[in-house]
Amino acid sequence: MKMLDGCWRRCVVVGLRLLLFLPAGLPVRSQGDSNNKQMDNITVRQGETVFLSCSQGDFVTHTAWLNRSSILYAGEDKWSVDPRVSLVVLNQAEFTIKITDVDLMDEGQYTCAVQTVSRPRTTSVHIIVQVPPKIVNLSKDLVVNEGSNVTLMCLANGKPEPAIVWRMQSSSDDGLSSETEVLEIPFITRQRAGTYECTAVNDIAVDTQTVELTVNYPPSISEGRDVGVTLGQRGVLLCEADAVPEADFEWYRDDRRIFNDFDGIAIEDSDAFSKLIFFNVSETDYGNYTCFATNKLGSANTSILLYEVIEPTSSTLLQVETASVLEMTSSDLKQRAFENNELWEGPGAVQDGNSGTSTVFTPTCLLLIILLQLLLKF
Fold it and tell me: CA dihedral defined by 20, 23, 25, 26, rounded to 10 degrees?
């Protein structure tokens, strides 16, 4: 019996191949024979499941599904070793199999061959597998010096073939985008450092990946602002520098470098800033200071003057107030003389229009008036 069964299988294979009598992979066309039919193509996405079905009809003796020239199923017998292929329906009306987790290798022609008592019949269908885009080769993160020429590469697979778009995130500069696999950036500047995005897109999906581009450049330092501090008070000199990599700071007084915790002076560095802090400014602290910012590409410096601010005392305040009151009193007397049509003779005397006599304000009177106004203020 085993020998007969093996012989039958070989006969089936030979018979089916003779039945098709076509080169593997070519679509079956009717060529005037109505028993050979070509179904519409089936388009399926990678990873999905596809069902292949053909009608049986009466008086069917043998039936089989083939992928190109390989037999998947002959009746209920599975010939394929692929676990993704299975039988769904086999009866007098239809013969259906399914393929799960479809991949690109499953693309091609499938044929349902039916043998009746009278003549053979074939039905063919072509499976098209669509594959979402996948970026397979992308430039690594880059660190370059300002002025260098930069080339970014992005390669992707997919079916249909994906379109590639490069752009710089958070940029409105149209020159930083490209619709090809390569993005060229000549003579790169610090303003073009940042994150670059490659997008691969087709009818199925979108794949996006990014490249971080770092641009090194020497320090550029902000002009220092002179600082005035009262003797004995706290003073702070600020130095700011823009650089990649971050700058190292040094402070100098003339040719002498200043170190942290030296002579009551502290240095605090934070990112792009450096502070020179005087906790109790003395006479010897006043003068010119220089801040240097340095990285591996260069250096820059700026000078800052620490100068003395004299705090006002009570005597100086009295002098200011006295001058202000004298000016105000003189102005008032002049205005009164003008209103009374009197002759203004200076801050010492005013003609009295009613009595015809002269009222004299002596310096002593003026001083008393000034002191009285000062006392009223306090």
Answer: -80
- The pLDDT tens digits for 20-53 are 433 333 333 333 345 677 778 999 999 999 999 9
Question: What domains, with CATH codes, occur in the chain?
Answer: 2-132 (2.60.40.10), 139-211 (2.60.40.10), 222-308 (2.60.40.10), 314-377 (no CATH)
pTM for the structure as a whole: 0.65
Nearest to 215 by CA among 141, 140, 301: 141
Who contacts 313 (Cβ-Cβ below 8 Å, separation ≥6)?
none
Q: What percent of the chain has pLDDT over 70?
A: 72
User: What confidence tens digit (pLDDT) does each residue in 234-280 have?
Assistant: 999 999 999 999 999 999 998 899 998 878 899 999 989 999 999 99
